[in-house]
Write a structure and sequence with these properties.
The complex is a heterodimer of chains A (239) and B (234). Chain A has 239 residues and is α/β, with parallel strands linked by helices. Helices cover 38% and strands 26% of the residues of chain A. Chain A contains nine helices and ten strands. Chain A is globular and about 50 Å long. In chain A, 49% of the residues are buried. Chain B has 234 residues and is an alpha/beta fold. In chain B, α3 packs parallel to α7. Chain B has eleven helices and ten strands. Classes of the chains: A alpha/beta (239), B alpha/beta (234).
């Protein structure tokens, strides 16, 4: 059974269909990539899944249970966490406290603040931000704020993680590190659905890729199939 | 055209730049390469007047500009397109573009410049009346570049213009930058797409931990083992 699936998912902004009748699924343990031109509806789809926006039509299920209509915090507590394309860290709060917030918020069981702190420290280690743990999050570089969002999302103990352009603004050497981070997250048993424009990363880490264009799904397949698809080359990859 | 000499810059007590010097000649494309956190944006903030250097000088067309307020630096002909665009989200696309035309000489030629910007970025014309916050990530970036051009700059500074753009459009951005030079604009470019950047730049400087550690022609840097390993991932 897919961990996440959507049927006929549609979102209108006024008269504009930002996402139109999209069917999709993500299987447990997979890394699925979501690509498409700028403005094709990728982030909107993530916003619908995480309930940052309300779906106009269609249904989204997480582990077989309908989640359309739930509030964002309820979805997070079910084990579906996300990061943001335009980062949303708590800028004036130290890095460690940002992660701690995730730990204390996400888990239904009562966690002592000592345990939460320990866990937050471990997550900072995991994403490579231990050295800046006391720095206000807003002072980090953009790339590090993105890593911080990953740590904060992981702190809520997700089973499915949505990553929105984790690798934007990284140089090739840094992209390699970020790819390694994604693989390590998967090794923890977490399923990943990721938006990314860095083709080297998408092609190397994803099991399967979906392509959106003008809000509609125009292709889906293995990285090899996508890389050689005429349609995808035309609308997205370029010659 | 632009000369940065022995700049030292701080954020509070933390030193971010040490003895940074570089030169950009008229009609060059010069790239600045460095990891995240190396001090690239700090250097740009210093040139554009957002940050005052503790010591050193910045000279543009023979005039000292360090210590001038940012808007005076724009008037002199330097346009800075910051990382992430920093557009005015509650204004329309057209209003954002007009905001870029505030320098006196640019305001008079506003209509003409607008047409040129629309030629470079046709999607901005389509979205002219939309609020900027309804644009996609890539369109934000185009709007920011377009706004930067509205001041009719002599030197344009781009901080990661390909950030978050689809592969097909990344190439268009590089082509746009090349064509801007042909239109007589000097370019100072920061980019993480190091290979493509070195292909279009004449020269590049490498900034590491707040210091310039390498500079040279792009061809020479492409041969450098350090560049290949640390920045190209080869």
């Amino acid at each position: 059974m897919p961990i996440l699936e959507g049927e006929g998912v549609t979102k209108y902004f006024g008269g504009l269909a930002a996402v139109l009748n999209v069917d999709f699924h993500v299987n447990q343990g997979e890394i699925v990539g979501l690509i498409g031109p700028n403005g094709s509806g990728k982030t909107t789809l993530f916003n619908l899944i995480s309930a940052a926006l309300a779906t106009t039509e269609g249904v989204i299920r997480y582990k077989g249970k309908k989640i359309t209509g739930l509030r964002p915090h309820q979805i997070c507590r079910l084990g579906l966490a996300r990061t943001f394309q335009s980062v949303k860290v708590f800028a004036n709060m130290p890095v460690l406290q940002n992660v701690l917030l995730g730990s204390l918020f996400g888990t239904p069981i009562n966690m002592s603040s000592a345990n939460a702190a320990k866990e937050a420290e471990e997550l900072l280690e995991f994403v490579g931000l231990s050295a800046v743990r006391a720095t206000p999050a807003g002072d980090l570089t953009l790339a590090n704020q993105k890593r911080l969002e990953v740590a904060r999302a992981l702190a809520t103990k997700p089973e499915l993680l949505l990553l929105d352009e984790l690798m934007a603004g990284l140089n090739p050497a840094e992209v390699a590190q970020a790819m390694e981070l994604v693989s390590r997250i998967r090794d923890k048993g977490i399923t990943i659905f990721m938006i990314e424009h860095v083709m080297k990363a998408i092609m190397n880490v994803c099991d399967r890729i979906m392509v959106l264009h003008h809000g509609e799904k125009i292709a889906e397949g293995t990285p090899q199939e996508i890389a050689s698809s005429r349609t995808v080359i035309e609308v997205y990859l370029g010659e | 055209m632009l000369e940065v000499s022995n700049i030292e810059a701080f954020y509070g007590k933390a030193q971010a730049l040490w003895d940074v010097s570089l030169k950009i000649d008229e009609l060059e494309i010069v790239a600045l390469i460095g990891s995240n956190g190396a001090g690239k944006t700090t250097l740009l903030n210093t040139i554009s007047g957002l940050l005052r250097p503790a010591s050193g000088s910045v000279t543009f067309l023979g005039k000292r500009i360090d210590g001038l307020p940012p808007h005076s630096i724009v008037e002199l002909g330097i346009s800075y397109v910051p990382e992430g665009g920093r557009i005015f989200t509650e204004m329309t696309v057209l209003e954002n573009l007009e905001m870029g035309a505030y320098p006196h000489h640019a305001w008079k030629q506003k209509k003409e410049t607008l047409e040129q910007v629309y030629q470079v970025f046709p999607v901005l014309k389509e979205r002219e009346k939309q609020l900027a916050r309804t644009l996609s990530g890539g369109e934000h970036q185009m709007l920011a570049m377009g706004r930067g051009l509205m001041s009719r700059p002599k030197l344009c500074i781009f901080d990661e213009p390909s950030y978050g753009l689809a592969p097909k459009f990344v190439e268009e951005v590089f082509q746009t930058i090349k064509s801007l030079r042909e239109q007589g604009i000097t370019i100072f470019l920061i980019e993480q797409n190091v290979l493509r950047t070195l292909e279009i730049a004449d020269r590049a400087c490498v900034l590491e931990n707040g210091r310039i550690v390498l500079d040279g022609t792009s061809n020479n840097l492409l041969q450098s083992d350090h560049i290949r390993k640390a920045y190209l991932g080869l």
